[in-house]
Amino acid sequence: MFLSNAVLSKEDETIKQKKLIAALKAMLISLGITIGLIGVIVVLTCLPVYIFKLIKNMNSQELDLSSIWVIISFSIGTIIPFLIKRKKPTEDYSEASILFHKLILNNYNLSRMLFSFDNRFKKGEKIQDKDTFLIVSGLARAGTTSLTDQLFKAAAFSSLDYSNMPLLLAPNLWKKMYDPKKVTLKERKHGDKMLFGLNTIEALEEYFFKVFLNDSFISNYYLERHDISEEVYKNYIKYQSLVRQDNESTYLSKNNNIILRYESLRKFNKDFKIIYLFRKPEEHAYSLLNQHKRFSEFQNEDEFIQTYLNWLGHHEFGQNQKVFKFGDDEPIILYDKNTLNYWLSIWLNYYSYLINLVDENYLLIEYEDYLNKPKEVLQFIEKYMNMTFDFSNIEPFTNTRKIDTSNCDPKLLEATDSIYQKLKLRKLKV
């Protein structure tokens, strides 16, 4: 599949040739490993018979293949390879499903081709492109998932959900083959009592930008601010039309990385709506710290979790956590990732950039306001979007957690509080 992905590439022939050679090398290595594993299985299968020969002091010609002891020896040999301890497949995905995800999501040229097919496939349905759409964003753990879910339930929005995996760029083709009706809900790994199932919407659109920008904004340690081209923007609008179910619906997405390209998106489109959420820096940092520890442990137990998060561009916490880089200078954070100071620095880096954006054509909402007065917040968004909302699923929630900041850097606390007060002045007043 890696070789076919390289063949499908439309890049310069020199680059394409290098990728073909690399893909061929990877394929030969994989073939060599497979042959080696087969050899190991053959050796392990024959080993008990060889031991039996040594015990009986027999040569191969004297071996009676009909002997019960030879049959037992062969049987033991065939069982041994299956006794070798190996990692269990993840509880959410079978080995076949993991392989299918890897074949699709690891191969960007294939995904681009599927996107092109899906565009042709849906042309007959006459879903028109629409410049008005809504993005919910913010630093992870700011309440973006909850607000996006509430909005989706409240109005005529269309969004990606887990059933779109792994053919994220061909939602209509995939729906013809896979359209689950019966959905079982369970708590997500964050431990925040939020339930999800195959029809639960999630932050999946970032894969589009990863594919069409070829991960150019992702480095070893950073997610870097970047501009998108007009071609990428037009394809993004086409992609939204593939997701939207009809001409009346509005595209909705949660995307915590959108800030990296917000300014260039705004140059192409003055009409789209975006909501940024924020919360008290110490509470926010504490939540990020907890999730970092939690997901790092999960990733030790199941390496597929990190692979899955990498595919979707989720680098907020865990073993492959990356820092937002908004300028030419690299953000330097001197604290350990397992301390509150580190995540306060992450908060400061993100919201310092947000509050200083020259363009303020966005809606800023505080997490506590959304928790305590969800109906009032959604009523404002209803006017903001010029839509009609259903408020029957809304319930307020009170957060009473107090965070111990006695071990935090006082200067860091002062800096985060300064930005926090600026955000509060700029936020939606409810």
From TrEMBL:
Domain Sulfotransferase: 247-395
Record's keyword annotation contains Repeat: no
Keywords in alphabetical order: Membrane, Transferase, Transmembrane, Transmembrane helix
One Gene Ontology MF term: sulfotransferase activity
InterPro entries: P-loop_NTPase, Sulfotransferase_dom
Short name of one Pfam family: Sulfotransfer_1
Membrane-spanning parts: 26-51, 63-84
Protein name in the entry: Sulfotransferase family protein
